[in-house]
Amino acid sequence: MRHEALFRFRSAHAEPLFHAVRPEMEGECNPRSKAMCLLEPPDTLVLAVHAADIAALRASLNMWLRLILVAEEMQELLNNQETIQ
Question: pLDDT digit string (tens) for 45-75?
């Protein structure tokens, strides 16, 4: 694979985010791209995406970054709910 991108997300919710995206990683079967997600304790989620071409990299990044963003937003909502109650 010729194209790659690496993101490190520092978050107090790194571990829950990792567990939220891990099932999607296990089911991924795209022949043009490969993504890997790692947890670097205590607070860093690492996303690495490798792709055969730039279009596949863009598409894969769109999907994984959106998934991580949604997981982070859901975690924030849960934390806000717990604070209110």
Answer: 999 999 999 999 999 999 999 999 999 999 9
Domains of the chain as residue ranges with CATH: 3-74 (3.30.310.50)
Q: Tokens 């709910």 label which residue?
A: 81
Tokens of 56: 């596949």
DSSP 53: S
Instruction: Enumerate the H helices of 1-85 as residue ranges.
Output: 14-26, 54-84
pTM of the model: 0.87
Beta bridge pairs of residue 4? 50
What is the Cα–Cα distance from 31 to 12, expressed in whole angstroms? 33
